[in-house]
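Hey, weird one. I pasted the Adenylate/guanylate cyclase domain-containing protein sequence into the form twice and got a warning about non-standard characters only the second time. First submission, copied straight from the form history:
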Amino acid sequence: MMIVICGVIIGYMSTSDRRIAGRLLDDGATATLKVNRAVLDRFFAVQETALQAAALDLKRNLSVAANAISNRYGSLFPQGTRLSVREAGSPAVPVSPALTGIRFVRDAAAEDTMLELAYGFERGKELVSLYPLRIVDGLLGQMKWEGRQQPFLLEGRDKVISISGWKRPVSQAGPASPLPSLSDLGDHPLRAIWQENADAHTMGGNVTGRVFPSSGGMYTAILADITDGPAAGWTLGTLYQAKDFGAALDQSRIVLYAAVIALCIGAFLSFLLGRLLGRPLTRLAEASARVRGLDFDGIAQLPPSRLTELDNVNAAFNGTVSALNAFARYVPRQLVKRLIEQGMTDPRQIETREMTVVFTDIAGFTTMASRLSAEETAGFLTGYFELVSDAISAEDGTIDKYIGDGVMAFWGAPVDQPNHRELAVAFVRKLAERLDEEADKRIRVRVGIHTGQVVVGNIGSISRVNYTVIGDVVNVAARLQEYGKSVDPDARLIALASEETMAGVERGEGENLVGRISLRGREQETSVFRIV
């Protein structure tokens, strides 16, 4: 009877294991292609935004010399990008600013193939950006998150745009065919992807792919045809050695052999132990998931267990939750959650980004605090901080720190926010609405906003770091906040923004240029706008 039971269990485990392994392969391949597509979409979105910003300025100032366009707007684009303006193929292009074309062209001057994006910004005129293919190679580097992967991009099914790790040979391609064909890849395995062979076949499951022999081995390629967006007509894929891609299926076979032996010996004990451990471990897993999301309020205390080891784990976990719950009151919980979601917990995670920084301060707080008790001061500040923090959170901002009676916040990290300028300006408008509804009319706020390149990341010592931003942008935002008292000292809310912030932001009523101001500590004058 035991042998029959074990045989049924082994058969079920084998079938389930292979089905789960196949599903994991499908899910993993789908996730890989989605992540890689997101990298590609993000690149085109950023470039389209940069083209839109440059085109907007060009439209206002059509006198910019042709040879000065790259120098004027080159900082908005990847290094090596060349910009120019040309007459559009159709004089009706565009009715509204938009991407009007994407293609690969042969650059005779550089003797290299370039990716061309055309952006129509004036009737009959296009702003053209030319990108070296090494920029596309860099995108594939972002798509490769483990060594066994080799992402690639094809135009259609035959023309090679880029392959991760592939050294592009000096091409003899001409203007009519600027990209090499698969047949030009030499001994690269991908050249055989579409060749008919007895061992080649299309993959099953939910992912488009192909298994094929090449260069003395078997390879697997997962593919996604891009049917929309600027890259429509391209093929995005990732190449694996077949043994690496199908390792889960091979392991399932090994597990089957081991299960035949192990299950025959301990089937009954395993069943009892599983019943004994299953429910407590499920509770522990659910509670751990809540800890990862910093949802301490929804975690119940884990009960004691008759198993000593499990009881010790539950007790340690309960103590950890209590300690973390207390500690979480002293750190920006929203920021920590975002850093965990983005996988940016490395203390050396530092980068340079264009971001928008905001400083707020209470007008006349020093005088007010001198007339209040300590408890009244704390209560007043708590109400003010909640007011500002709610407005920042409503527009997806990140609070950096509280500085006395001031708040420093930023947009553009840790989550990539291409519209960080618009979000920061929207915060000011949201804050104005909240102040109108606020019963305590003693709260008068000054706000300074500036946009530019900053260093952002985990900054500090090995034992303690802050996720913060540093750079001249921070100082300018603080100076703009200070300058607000010179513009309108009696305002309930005055918000000043720099020209860099207002560039490309749709201005509302009352958002006017204050003038070009020499801010404290800066020799260069700054164009200052009043938002509220």
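That's the output from the first submission. The warning seems to come from a hidden character in my clipboard, not from the data itself. The radius of gyration is 30 Å.
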